[in-house]
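Q: I have 124 residues here and want to know how they pack in 3D. Can you give me a structure?
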Amino acid sequence: MGARWMIGNERKVDILKDNWLSSVSGFKVMGPVRGIEQGAIVSDLIDSDLRCWNQELISDCLGPVTCSHICSIPLSWSNLEDSIIWHFEKDGMFSVKSTYHLLRKNVMLLSQGPLVIPGKSYGR
């Protein structure tokens, strides 16, 4: 629901399976995918010589919208490992308080229409 990967050295995160896109509902790659094999990792999307996103490859395989989301993620120059963070806290640490606020927000939305949970939609 709110856990996602923060990109570090790009070696642990599966492009298609894992939650890692902070600006996309559900944090996952959505839409048509061409030319990316199951099990491909985020480092496969990076030009290792220039140390930048391979925008042409990403756009060709995932489309321009997903490309813009991915290319907005800054790449780390350190060798910190990829890590799982709680998206709804600035420091990335899970807290009951942030979960309470997230659920409260969804309850308020429920009173106005369908419940909205990132990546899912439930009717009344």
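Q: Anything worth noting?
A: The beta strands are 3-6, 46-47, 52-53, 83-86, 115-117, 120-122. The helical segments are 55-62, 64-71, 96-112.
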